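seq as requested:
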Amino acid sequence: MSVLTLLLVVPAAAGLACLLTRSRRVLAALGVLAFGITLALGVCLLRQVLTGGAVTEWGEFLRADALSAWMVLLISTVSLATSLYAGRYFQRDLAAGAVTPGRVREFFVLTPLFAAGMFLVVLANSLGVMWAAVEATALSSVLLVALYNRRTSLEGAWKYVMLGSLGLALALLGTVFVYAAACKSNPRPLPSFNWSHLMTVAPQLDPRLIRLAFVFVLLGYGTKAGLAPMHTWLPDAHGEAPSPTSAMLSGVSLKVALYALLRFHILTTACLGSGFSGHLLLGLGLLSMFLAAPFILVQENLKRMLAYSSLEHVGLICVGIGLGTPVTIFGALLHMGYHALTKPVLFFAAGNIHQTFHTLEFRLIGHGVLKTLPVTVLCLGLAAVAATGLPPFGLFFSELTVISGGIAAGHTTVSVLVLGALIACFCGMLLQFTRILPGEPKGGRHHDGRAWDGVPAMGLLLGGLLLFSVWLPRPLLAVMQQAAGIIGGKS
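struct tokens:
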């Protein structure tokens, strides 16, 4: 089998294989093995794209360009780290009676299927198949959100499935309008619905239908991406899901929905120019950033606070894309990668804190996590510094790239607004973390922390973050530049 086919088959086969075993260690090992293979396949795909351009299989049913290759690397890396973390995490949950062995096996079956759906989203050439793949990721992930079968987790899953289904229904309408535009421009024979074909006829598409289509797609996939004001499912789903699932939702699932939105943005730009879709992305991006800041400040739950932080970062990515300059688009892609390495570490650390203190409420955790979980706090502190955009971590450079690119292109007002929102979110997160990290533990509380739990997974991501913050390998730089060119309509 070729690379694209294997990227779909390997995680799907691992998920199905998990149905045949009851051993927790075997379940965890299958996930690690599968995503280790997909990461290696992602590196091979990157090389193929850089040397030969877009890769196609199955008669162009599957297609990967530089943007697809970049997303494959992100999905594989976060999924591998999640699998490394999940084994010990569920071992502790089983010991505490928080889950049953059947629920644990459900997690290890659904997570590779969730990843396989995300791979199909970024590899499908047909916009219709891409929509179906996004729907598949929603169906698998909603069961993961409800895994603990508590009232609050069921409520979070219900909000997720209801708002997500509404969003995907709107995205389907937008997809249908694009096909109607293609049929109107070329009624006989029925046109191909492949994205690569639509790009070749984009100037001939009906501009009114394309405008309408993008509005529906923006609302639809924007809901799945957690953009404001369609973000209300985000804190509930991320807050109630198991920490490994929260890591995948925030680390890559939001970005996969953004990828689907970007494909329509590129098509709309080819038909109408960059102004229409770019201004809409810019507006929703700024709204998301400014809405995130006050909600971060008032949160009382650690994982809900991290979910609102994701809203800020998704908003910044949309602002970078919406500004539409080569520098800001590159900065947005760079930010996408650094955020994918950073946010799972925060959720892994939150999982350790939850299982140690048996709560995620700041007032109940109290001060002194450092004394109880020193290694977890070290990883949490490093990831928190990175997430707030401080040097020397890469998120500082990606944010600076977006802001400086906006100023250089004459968008000074937007750049100042972005800077203000970033400062507000920084202050909110700084205040929240000071509520739990320094000081002495509360007396009389029972703690059962294990110092090194989750360190391999957090170390993998933090090591990659530190390395790539100071050095970008030439192939990674090249693939991001090519992907920025695709989004900007230069290739």
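Residues 443-448 have pLDDT under 50 and may be disordered.
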